[in-house]
Write a structure and sequence with these properties.
The complex is a heterodimer.
Chain A: H1 11-31, H2 36-50, E1 55-57, E2 60-62, H3 67-74, H4 78-93, H5 101-125, H6 129-157, H7 166-194
Antiparallel strand pairs in A: 1-2
Helix pairs in contact in A: 1-4, 1-5, 2-4, 3-5, 4-5, 5-6, 6-7
Chain B: H1 2-14, E1 23-30, E2 33-40, E3 50-55, E4 60-65, E5 71-75, E6 84-89, E7 95-100, H2 102-111, H3 121-155, H4 160-184
Antiparallel strand pairs in B: 1-2, 2-5, 3-4, 3-6, 6-7
The chains are: A mainly alpha, B alpha+beta.
Protein name (chain B): Cobalamin biosynthesis protein CbiL
Organism (chain B): Antarcticirhabdus aurantiaca
Protein name (chain A): Cobalt transporter CbiM
Chain lengths: 204, 185
């Protein structure tokens, strides 16, 4: 799924991914303050454990990515959190690979950060709980779609023998988008009720 | 924060350590055929995914798509003297392969073809011996197959201790971050 393994991508794609990931992690680290560090740690631990539980879907098996929820709660600091999660999964369980760490970090973190940045203000302002949940679900679903698109793009750009097939990608990512939408909506609704501050990565 | 931490601990306790996300391929030689299946660690088999078998020189020996149980099978070519690699590609960035060592293939192809039996008794006894060896080979293969499957599954098992160490490593990183910021002030 979202973790591309070693040996599937070409060197330019790997270098480009590593460069983008380094930029994102650099920006994110600068944003990490006393308020965000514990939050990033707890979220990274939760996502690390949560993404180990996978569900068989069609020809593949999927697991939650939670990049939308992370984007809403951490902003750009999602990058270092995702990098830590992916490094641990690669080192401890052999998911993904060490050379593809940069590409995978960008593929997962970037859509979450971008869509949370676009829809985040509307979610924080939303007066009605249903609107908020719907918008949060949208962030979750769009982030997964973005990740799917970026995974397909990185494989297609590498012109490898393992170029993904659109129908298979859709068959595996659409159920995940729906699941992710529900998970993100639940988390955001819960946080908005008990601890609205958790949805603000930047103190304003 | 405390509530989130409690939820995390509960999730951690509920998460089955056997669930995960990586494709593996198991292949075995049975007489004159190679068969096996692809599986996701923690459950699930890729169905309808293309597979391809190549020898060490990269020549395609056989190919096809997996069935509903993720299985594949093909007849061993007579000239299989090098390692065979079976690769399964789910077409969405999951690719895995298994390699069958040449020694395992050689054993299968040398014992399986029944030796042409000439009329005299000595050669007949030799033929019987060859057949017996083939039967023993098949029986042993059948007995050790579940063991090999089990090994393959355990090799890639998610361990609870690994999960815990990952979680505590993240907590440690957060602690180091806070400490470093404290120093700067």
């Amino acid at each position: 799924m979202a973790h591309i393994a070693d040996g599937l991508l070409s060197v330019p794609v790997l270098l480009c991914g590593a460069g983008m990931a380094a930029a994102g992690v650099g920006l994110g680290l600068r944003r990490l303050d006393d308020r965000l560090i514990p939050r990033a740690g707890i979220l990274a631990a939760a996502v690390f454990v949560g993404s180990l539980v996978s569900i068989p879907v069609g020809p593949s098996s999927v697991h939650v990515l939670m990049s939308g929820a992370m984007g809403l709660m951490l902003g750009i600091a999602t990058f270092p959190a995702v990098l830590v999660i992916l490094s641990l999964q690669a080192l401890l369980f052999g998911f993904g690979g060490l050379t593809t760490l940069g590409v995978n970090t960008v593929n997962i973190a970037l859509p979450g950060v971008v869509f949370a940045m676009l829809l985040g203000p509307a979610i924080r302002r939303a007066g009605h709980a249903t609107t908020r949940a719907a918008l949060a679900g949208l962030v979750g679903a769009l982030s997964v779609a973005g990740t799917g698109g970026l995974v397909a793009l990185s494989l297609a750009l590498s012109s490898s023998d393992y170029a993904p097939v659109a129908s298979v990608i859709i068959a595996t990512y659409v159920p995940l988008m729906i699941g992710e939408a529900f998970v993100t909506a639940t988390i955001v609704s819960f946080l908005a009720r008990v601890h609205p501050d958790a949805l603000r990565p930047v103190t304003s | 924060m405390k509530r989130v931490a409690a939820a995390l601990l509960i999730a951690l306790a509920l998460a089955s350590p056997a669930a995960a996300h990586k494709l593996k391929v198991f292949a075995t030689v049975e007489g004159q055929a190679v068969r096996g299946y692809a599986f996701f660690i923690g459950g699930g088999r890729p169905n309808g995914s293309p597979w391809i078998a190549k020898d060490a020189a990269g020549k395609v020996v056989a190919s096809g798509t997996t069935d509903a149980e993720g299985r594949f099978a093909f007849a061993l070519p007579a000239a299989a003297t090098t390692d065979l690699t079976v690769t399964v590609d789910t077409q969405e960035a999951h690719v895995a392969s298994a390699t069958l060592a040449a020694s395992r293939l050689a054993g299968a192809s040398s014992t399986a073809p029944p030796a042409p039996a000439p009329a005299d008794g000595a050669a007949d006894a030799g033929g019987d011996e060859a057949r017996l060896a083939a039967l023993i080979g098949a029986a042993v293969q059948k007995e050790i197959e579940p063991l090999m499957e089990r090994l393959e599954a355990m090799d890639a098992r998610l361990r609870f201790t690994d999960m815990l160490s990952g979680v505590f490593l993240i907590i440690g990183l957060a602690g180091i971050g806070l400490w470093a910021r404290g120093l700067r002030r």
